């Protein structure tokens, strides 16, 4: 947790005032038994009603004052913790966005959600209680011991032993439970993963009637978390009774020795009452300290998980250069590129080379798992190549800043995603300063005019979360339009028109060729019709490049392409 102290900078006043006020409250609390002893030994012993009433009024005044500073301190603590939590969450979110796909997959998407929400909340709650109690509880506990020593040395020693035993118990408990809280949070990651998977695939789940199986699997995951919580709870449940037992044993000893010492005249009755009051205060504070330690154990386990994310440096370092495409350089080129996914046995792409001139088109075709989407990911630099190089406008993508690269190359993937807002707000993700005319032009090119006109409000029509008030084909057209608004130099369409019918798909290709003359277009598809008119077609098979040429050239020279064509087209269509 200490590593997160940077989020307290700028809140020094609250950091100082809050614990100090709580300490002041504690100091006032420590004075009460001393006043009480005076009331008993002087006021009651002398039957002096005025003395008793005056001291009673003093105690009431102290109580009100202590209440006022306690409320003030808690206000500062809550404000501090809320500011800390907000800054922490914002930073963590920004950091997660800066990570590469590989980093995100390694940490786990579900785990990142838990860390961003539940873990940061636990750290915030821990911090809140920390500032409330960190000075107060030890101060009151130590203060009661010191005060007891001042009243009577023997009785002070008895209380000290009871406090030390309780404190030892609490610290031992913290050591044991921190690791367990970590395991509980990991269990929550698994719950989160199951929820996300099931909600995302709810239709498939229903279609395959897997509700019962998934309910059982969810119950098993939740039960595993419950078991971990119960095991940790069993230990936590022991701490309070053990603390009670230790302090109450101390109380018995204190009364035993105290009674003897009152009898022999070494202690007054008022002093014994004050000592008993100190033991009660010590007990209450030790219990609070125990709860604080429980919260801190949780918070520290969660802070470690949050720090793990911060310590994950993006594996893809941002390049230093801005894009300055050379006029005679290819818009996109792969030079003998090989790539393997982390932890995968073999290459997903091996020895792939092609060069795409500005304004030219490349079709990429191949069977399932042949490496087509991997090629798109490398063009976007979601991953770094294992060997060889990917260049954009003649510059190695590793040399370019991420923002600059994204300004040059845009990708539309099959799983078209829209975000809640309006059609216009979604389209302006492409370019925030785009005017309505730019949006309309992109919509027309993407064959999405009918989609926009069909919705009440046109460009201002509402888009629900994930764009679920649009069909799959409508979403695909709008995501293509969003990318066109950006006017990229290289446009990569990865199965981006799979939900479109053949006629619309063909119209889309013609419109892009007409309206985006300078844009190099890479069309990735399993459909021959989507790539056959490209200037070049790259054929992949098991990650290897087995053909590169025009439709006619490949029909003569590439058996894999011939096979794909034969499986999808009639003989007449192949040569048409
Ligand atoms: N994130 C990943 N981690 C590990 N292996 C992966 C990952 N993504 C893809 N692969 C593997 O890399 C290979 C190429 O996958 P890729 O997604 O590029 O194929 P594809 O040609 O686009 O397939 P499809 O047409 O089915 O979408 C496959 O063997 C796949 O299992």
From TrEMBL:
Its membrane topology: Multi-pass membrane protein
Coarse class of the protein's main subcellular location: membrane
InterPro entries recorded: AAA+_ATPase, ABC1_TM_dom, ABC1_TM_sf, ABC_transporter-like_ATP-bd, ABC_transporter-like_CS, P-loop_NTPase, Type_1_exporter
Location of the ABC transmembrane type-1 domain: 16-298
Protein keywords: ATP-binding, Membrane, Nucleotide-binding, Transmembrane, Transmembrane helix
Protein name: ABC transporter ATP-binding protein
Originating species: Thermophilibacter gallinarum
UniProt xrefs under PROSITE patterns: ABC_TM1F, ABC_TRANSPORTER_1, ABC_TRANSPORTER_2
Gene3D superfamilies named among the record's database cross-references: ABC transporter type 1, transmembrane domain, P-loop containing nucleotide triphosphate hydrolases
